[in-house]
Amino acid sequence: MLRNILLFNIGLRNALLHSKRLPTKQLRSFVKYSTASERKRFYKTVSLSQCDDGLYEINLDKAKLKTPGGKLLTLPNEALAIAVATEWDAQQDILKFYTMHMTTLCNTAIDNPTLRDEDQMISAALKYLETDTVCYRVEEPYGLVDLQMNEWEPVLQWIESRYNVTIGSSSSILGPEIPEATKDTFRQHLKSYNYWSLTGLEYVINQLKSVVLALATIDRHVSVEKAVLLSRLEEEYQIRQWGNVEWAHDYDLYELRARTAAGALFVQLSSETSSVKRKLLQD
User: Fold this and answer.
1) Which pTM does this prediction carry?
2) Of 85, 138, 184, 219, which sits 20 to 30 A from 246 (CA to CA)?
3) Where would one find the signal peptide in this protein (predicted)?
4) Long-range pairs for 237-240 at CB < 8 Å and ≥24 separation?
5) Which pLDDT score is estimated for 5?
6) Helix (H, G, I), strand (E, B), or coil: what is residue 56?
């Protein structure tokens, strides 16, 4: 567990640029935390401490880490605390807050800047079904038509079989008409997530613009890399046809991967109950 967290955060440290996707109202709350100005590193050591109630805190030298809203950053389990502490420890002379996606998600879960409860978060997530990336199909060019059918249809069939629902696809700009029974099934499934996990799930959905791809990633049916590629299928097709702007494509791709991976890992770790029986950041 610790090795995976450390390796993951090395990847986060190398992804330094912002995503170019336009944020929704909910996503702006994440961006508020992730695009803070850079500042010099003001601490030498990062450590964890466990409270009497079992929650974990992050210590920067002797100071306790707080959220942008001024609340003490307390984490529900050791695994998630290690992930956040690793992000802070990985920072160099200049703190790049926009690379610290796990910290951003924890801040959002604690401060709840949009003041929503779990039912409201579930309803917001389900709205994406109506405009889900993999449900919209073009009618031309034929190369892209075939690509969408070959790449998207298997994932769509998987989720319909996995949850015993009907979603379908459409070439209409309005998307397919989602049956109420399908929405009810997903609503019941999402109610099994705690508030923190819903925060991570919504983050992944926002990145991929897809409930289908988000659930496929979290269920480990597809990898993060594959999910990101599928979410950008039309863009990748156009790049293959016409080329890409030098550097811009790769930066955008790596950042989207980093954000999606952070969200998926956050969902997993926010449901983690076991402790990591190893020294934090062991040399």
Assistant:
1) 0.83
2) 138
3) none
4) 237/143, 237/144, 237/147
5) 42
6) strand
